Amino acid sequence: IAMKTEMNEIKERLRKIEKFLPVDMSSIIREEKLTFEPSLMEITVLFCDIVGFTGMCERVNIRETADFIKFFYTLLNKLANENNGWVNKFLGDGAMIIFGAPFFTKDHPIDAVRTALSIKRELQKVKVGKEEIMVRIGINTGICLVGGIEAGERIEWTVIGDAVNVASRLENMALHGEIFIGEETWKAVREIFKTKYIGTISLRGRKGKTRIYEVVEGT
After folding, report:
1. The domain 35-217 belongs to what CATH superfamily?
2. Gap between the Cα atoms of 118 and 83, Å rounded
3. 69 CB contacts (<8 Å, ≥6 apart)?
4. Alpha-helical regions (H) of 124-177
5. Between the CA of residue 145 and those of 31, 40, 148, 158, what are the distances in Å?
6. CA–centroid distance for 173 within its chain
7. pLDDT, tens digit, for every residue of 5-43?
């Protein structure tokens, strides 16, 4: 009886954990198909956060802010899953979303841009108190180390690489709610989405210039 009770508790914990995972990943874990061994993969990384969130928190009731964050996280999970992506990390008022891993999909740059456009479209319908919501997004494609890294008794599913750093920098630059993408992403999506060349910049810690594009329209 004690063993049965313990097994039921473990199953219940797994069900709670699955709420934080995309549908595909939770089913893979149940069926023990997922290898946690880190490997090099071409992926697309999307970073997003809310423009002016700190100031908004000072002006809006804390309960309304908490309700919005709950809605925002749910929305990001939903839109990522619908486009073959998954939320790797929630970052306060934002998130890091991965496309193309743990299983490769050839259209991962397209999936990422489509997700970005959907996020902006949905948040245009939302207000927190009287505050309109504006989101900034950075997307980049490249080879990264993807997999489980052991940290003591837990395994952290992590993504490491230049593509991650560039995507984060692009998001930080999108001060007015733009969707900025790197050159490799642009090459993969330019026939599908309307884009605009922004220019070249030097990113700290990176050799050479980085070309930046803005997604201005999509399907």
Report:
1. Nucleotide cyclase, GGDEF domain (3.30.70.1230)
2. 10
3. 93
4. 162-173
5. 24, 5, 10, 8
6. 17
7. 666 665 555 454 445 455 555 555 555 545 567 889 999
Specify the 3-state DSSP secondary structure of 202: coil
Which distant-in-sequence residues (6+ apart) come within 8 Å of 78 by Cβ? none
Query: What does the alpha-carbon distance between residue 181 and residue 197 come to, in Å, rounded to a whole number?
Result: 10
Amino acid at 13: R
Total length of the chain: 219
Ranges of each domain in the chain: 1-33, 35-217
The residue with tokens 């997700």 is 115
Residue with the bigger pLDDT between 109 and 8: it is 109
Instruction: Specify the pTM.
Output: 0.83
Whether 126 and 72 have beta carbons less than 8 Å apart is answered as: no
